[in-house]
Amino acid sequence: MIRIPTVDRPDVTVVMVTYNRWDLTRQALSLLVEVTEPRYEVVIVDNASADGTADEIGRIEGARILRNSRNLGFGPANNQGAAMARGRYLLLLNSDAWVRPGWLGPLVDIADADPGVAAVAPKLLYPDGRLQEAGSILWRDARVRNYGDGDIPNRPEYVFRRTVDYASAACLLVRRSAFVEVGGFDPRFAPMYCEDVDLCLALRKHGGRVVYQPRAVVEHVRGASGSGGVKAARIERNRRLLRARWRSVLDRRPPESRRVDPSGIIGGRDALTCERVLVLTGPRPDAGGTPEQRRLRDLVVAAAGRWPDARWTVASLDGEPVTRPDALGDAGIEAFTAADSWEDWLDGRRYHYGIAAVADSRWAEGSLHAALDATQPQAMRVPVADSADLGALAVNLGRPGSGIPAWVR
């Protein structure tokens, strides 16, 4: 027996659409109850399952259930569930998505802290532990790329918070008022595919950001709750619909890299940023490190706070590799330490940065200097002799007369 906790005033309404595969649905709901603090309610919309799922969900205690006489598709069924919600937030959760301990709080915390955030997405993993999605990239032709798909999930580029083009609705926290404002999922995309991309673009059009939160982790089987016979045709049909609807937005996106080109993928990931700033340090900024490391951390976080629309990357020569979210990642700062080859790392970001703040003299010498010149010739060099200079950079960025070019401001 699955028993949903009774909550008088839930913060979150979990909306789950079911269509066959009770085995996965049972696992998803059991884990939800097992590892999630009781601050939610559950609404289940069954899309005319034919394998006994409709009967099984009737045995769930505490869930509110709607049974459709026919399969309305993913978007329309989620709209039905959203209309029954009492929570401030909707949590769209696929029936083949398995939550991990501590997953919900980090999603809600971001939305609570910033009214400009309309949706928050977790890190999605395959059941075998590989990364499935750390946010997604949207290309000019309306094709999409799950950022990091198939990679190791704890690499530095996947452990910092950032605004994304869109994130999969396999697990997506959405502010209910924002969902209602944009009209929910567009039924034109039914039965499935691309409706979550369209939703995220609509949220952005209405002033709401979609944020990737790596502190929340959810496993997703992907595709297990649907059928594959006409998948390619549906995706292509809906991609064309998406392209036609959002042409003016997509025309400002980069074209898709036709080969696995790291610099092209990074460029697509950071297409929404107004500028890219590379801070080159010796010791890694660390809130729990030496006094100098703590000061560096505070100054980098302050700099990023003054210019939040930029992509801030810190590359540090000394320290342990970054493998999990920390204070820098929580501030939206990408941090790399002790790369196997800095030359290869810079080459993978060729022509990416507009500003390179050099805070350690080793970056201005030998092979590191040559690699920086070869891969980032367009970047304005800002020498930073010590942490005080980095503090001055944080204060002066964007200030008229600061010596920072007008194109940066």
How large a portion of the residues is in β-strands, by DSSP E? 15-25%
Given the helix and strand composition, which structural class is it? Answer: alpha/beta
Q: For the residues shown, what is the average pLDDT? A: 91
CATH topology of the largest domain: Spore Coat Polysaccharide Biosynthesis Protein SpsA, Chain A
Query: What oligomeric state do the depicted chains represent?
Result: single chain
Whole-number tally of structural domains: 2
CATH class identity of the largest domain = Alpha Beta
Counted by DSSP, the helix tally is 14
Report the helical percentage: 25-40%
Radius of gyration: 23 Å
Distance between the termini: 59 Å
Low-pLDDT residue intervals, each spanning 5 or more residues = 400-409
CATH architecture of the largest domain: Alpha-Beta Complex
Number of extended strands: 17
> What's the story with the biggest beta sheet?
10 strands, mixed
3D shape: elongated
CATH superfamily of the largest domain: Spore Coat Polysaccharide Biosynthesis Protein SpsA, Chain A
Describe the structure.
The chain is of the alpha/beta class and about 400 residues long. About 30% of the residues lie in helices and about 25% in strands. The strands form three sheets. Strands 1, 2, 3, 4, 5, 6, 7, 10, 11 and 12 form a ten-stranded mixed β-sheet that branches. Strands 15-14-13-16-17 form a five-stranded parallel β-sheet. A two-stranded antiparallel sheet has the order 8-9. The chain is elongated. The protein starts with 11 loop residues before the first strand and ends in a 13-residue tail after the last helix. Residues about 400-409 have low confidence and may be disordered.
